[in-house]
Amino acid sequence: GENVEQHPSTLSVQEGDSAVIKCTYSDSASNYFPWYKQELGKGPQLIIDIRSNVGEKKDQRIAVTLNKTAKHFSLHITETQPEDSAVYFCAASGDDMRFGAGTRLTVKP
Amino acid sequence: EAQVTQNPRYLITVTGKKLTVTCSQNMNHEYMSWYRQDPGLGLRQIYYSMNVEVTDKGDVPEGYKVSRKEKRNFPLILESPSPNQTSLYFCASSLGGSQSLYEQYFGPGTRLTVT
Question: Confidence band (pLDDT; 50, 70, 90) for B99?
C-alpha cells in the first residue's frame, strides 16, 4: 500500500515570508495529491489538489508542485499571514488514500 | 448548507461500554469514511464505504464496526472500547465511489476518551 512521509513536522515563519512543506510517496500508481488545512477544533479542509497529469498548480498565494519521477510533491505558501497558522496534511491517493503525519505551521506577526 | 455532521463532539466513557458515534452528510455522496487522528500519526483510515451496504476495512479496523444502511449515514460502533481507542475521530464523505478522484469533506471531529 501507499506510504506518505511529510516534512517538516513543525515550521515557524515570519509574517510575509514563504513556507514550504514537502511530501514523498511510495506507490507509483498514486494519481491524486490533495492538501488539507486543519484549524484548531475543526476538521481538515481541502485547500488545493493536483492530479498526476499536471506538474504545478496555483491558487492565489498557494501552489503545489508534483514530481512523479521522484515521487514527491510540495506545498508552497507565499506572503504568509497569521491566519495561515494551522496544521497542514498532504495525502496521496491511488487505490486508497494515505495521509502524511502533518505539519504545524506557525506564522509570527 | 453542505456539511458532514458528527455526534457527539466529545465523549468520555469507560472500558467495555458500547458506544456509537453518528455521522451524516447532506451532499448525496456515495463514499464515506472514518479516520482517527493521533499525535504524530496523522489521519489513519478505520473503515470506508463506497456505497450503501458496501463497507471495507481501512488501515486500523480492529475494535471498530460500521454500517451503511442509508446513503447519508455512516455510524461508527465501538462494541467494547479500550483506552487505546482514545483519539480524535473524523468522518468524511466524497462524491464518487473511487476515493482517489474527489475531494473529501470532513466532519468537525469527535474527541473520545476511554478510561
Answer: low
Peptide bond into B75 cis (omega under 30): no
- Judged by CB atoms closer than 8 Å, whether chains meet at B45 and A96 is answered as yes
Residue closest to A5 by CA, chosen among A103, A105, A106: A103
Nearest to A104 by CA among A1, A4, A5, A9: A9
User: Closest to B100 (Cβ–Cβ): which among A36, A43, A94?
Assistant: A94
Per DSSP, what are the bridge partners of residue B10? B111
Cis-peptide, bond into residue A8, ω within 30° of zero: yes
Using DSSP bridges, classify how beta strands A62-67 and B10-13 pair: parallel, antiparallel or unpaired.
unpaired
Interface check for B78 against chain A (CB to CB < 8 A): the answer is no
> What percent of chain B is helix, strand and coil (3-state, nearest 5)?
5, 50, 45
Closest by alpha carbon to B98, among B64, B54, B62? Answer: B54
The pLDDT tens digits for B40-66 are 888 999 999 989 999 999 999 999 999
